[in-house]
Structure formats: structure tokens, C-alpha cells
Amino acid sequence: MALDPATFVSKPAPGRDCGTCTLCCKVFDVPVLEKKAGEWCSHCLPGKGCAIHATRPDHCRAFHCFWMLAPFLGPEWKPEKAKFVITIDPATQFMLVQVDPAQAGSWKREPYYSQFKKWSLANLQRGRQVVVFVNKAATVILPNKDVPLGEIGPDERIFITKRPVLGGFDLEAEKRKA
Ligand code: SF4
Ligand code: SF4
Fold it and tell me: How far is the CA of 174 from the centre of ligand 1 (A)?
């Protein structure tokens, strides 16, 4: 997943500060720097900040993760602790969880996993999704299962289908050409 400046919300919640967190400088593509997801940016001083802070690209200048914007998320959700960075796609309102590949299973730990399942159920009812990325590999979190889909091409979209089964219904996720 790449950082897209057009999608940024620029105002962090009162009292929110990156402090020693630098995880967004690792987990995302930053095309303007030719930086790939999962590799530290060459300008990053992990745990300290950006070595080119005054002249950093607009991509970086405007970005705030969901933890910076959502005051209801506790300190355990801060990316440097959780080991993933959440963003909300402004176009689709999908919740995107970009995981530190060095701790690829971090999203399955508690209290995160149970909360992702709750958000998945709530989002599904609104036609939205919760999608985890480890570098480019996507996994859709559904209330009843997690569905690994691999890389999603630029011309592909994720579709959720619901089919009746004995005693209820089953959900499935797949990627299809848009
Ligand atoms: S991931 Fe969030 S808290 Fe961490 S450095 Fe980036 S914007 Fe700040
Ligand atoms: S330029 Fe600075 S803020 Fe941007 S990704 Fe690199 S280290 Fe992070």
C-alpha cells in the first residue's frame, strides 16, 4: 500500500504525538522516495524521527495514522507498540492495517484481534471492510474467518459474498477485476 497525499487528514487529535514512533517510515511504499513497503526509509532514524524533517516530502509531512486521529484508541494501539499502522481509506472508508513485516502476526494478538473482528462486523453492515497488509499481501478480516488474498492489483477490487448455509450464513471474500 502506498501513501497517497490526496487521502491524508492533516490534524491529529489533541495531545497525540508521534514521540518515539517511526513505524510509518517503514511499513508503507513512499513512491516519491522510491521506498518500498517493509523497508526502513533511508532518512529514518528508527525510534527518533526523520533525519530530513525540515525538508521531508509532502507525502510524509501531511500523513497521520488512525491512532493519531482517533482519541478513543488507547496507548496499546500506538503503532510502535501494536506493530501495525491503521489508516482509514477516505474514498471507501475501509480500515487498512499495514503490519510491520518483522512482526507479521502482530494483528492476531489481543486485544487487537477481537477488536478487528468487532470492527469487521460493524463495517460489513455499512459495506466496508477491514483489510490487513503485510507488505503487499492482503488478508480480509471477516467476522467468521480471515481470508488471505495475496497482492491486489490496481484493477482489482475485493468483493464479499454472503451465502446461506444450514443454521445461518457464510461469508467469503475474493478479489475480482473491477
Ligand atoms: S505510525 Fe502514526 S504515530 Fe507512528 S510515526 Fe507514523 S504517524 Fe506517528
Ligand atoms: S522522509 Fe522522513 S518522514 Fe518520510 S518516510 Fe523517510 S524518514 Fe519518514
Answer: 30
The 3-class secondary structure across 54-92, one letter per residue, is HHCCHHHHCCCCHHHHCCCCCHHHCHHHHCEEEEECCCC
Which ligand 1 atom is at minimum distance from the Cα of 27? 1
Nine-digit cell at 148? 488471505
> Locate cell 513497503: which residue?
37
- Kindly state the cell numbers that stand for 18: 508521534
Instruction: Determine phi and psi for 112, rounding to 5 degrees.
Output: -70, -50
Distance CA 165, CA 41 (A): 48
Measuring from each residue's beta carbon to the nearest atom of ligand 2, which residues come in under 6 Å? Answer: 25, 30, 41, 43-44, 50, 52, 56, 60
What pLDDT is stored for residue 44 in this prediction?
Answer: 97
5 pLDDT band (50/70/90 cuts)?
A: low
Rounded Cα distance, 123 and 84, in Å = 19
